[in-house]
């Protein structure tokens, strides 16, 4: 089977590349909150006791968790973009770019307001993620079934 990339596939690659910069944003955010809190490496999170007393330690925990959540969701999101883009490149590109945008909102909200602040970014990213998963599954199936 030969797969010819659609002309617009370069936009999909651009959207997938945007996730590299979202990851860099998360890294900078987390490291700045680590420095502000005084929590040294290799400690992954401030203890609950410290986070309850120190708002800077709490913000570090929120930034760290937002970054972990991003990395947990990154691989499925990028695979969804790349596979969907084989048949629906504009959907994949717009969805991928929007996913990156919502992941930044997620991080900003989480760090500023704790877990309740992640809702808007989380909802947007989740809706796009589910759309990409179904579109990728349909795309893959269409190749298997020769549709």
TrEMBL record:
Keyword terms: Membrane, Transmembrane, Transmembrane helix
Gene3D superfamilies: Membrane associated eicosanoid/glutathione metabolism-like domain
One cellular component term from this protein's GO annotations in UniProt: nuclear envelope
Pfam families given in the database record: MAPEG
InterPro entries: MAPEG (IPR050997), MAPEG-like_dom_sf (IPR023352), Membr-assoc_MAPEG (IPR001129)
GO MF annotation, one: glutathione peroxidase activity
Residue ranges of the TM segments: 12-30, 90-111, 123-144
Entries under PANTHER family matching the protein: GLUTATHIONE S-TRANSFERASE 3, MITOCHONDRIAL, MICROSOMAL GLUTATHIONE S-TRANSFERASE
Protein name per Swiss-Prot or TrEMBL: Membrane-associated proteins in eicosanoid and glutathione metabolism
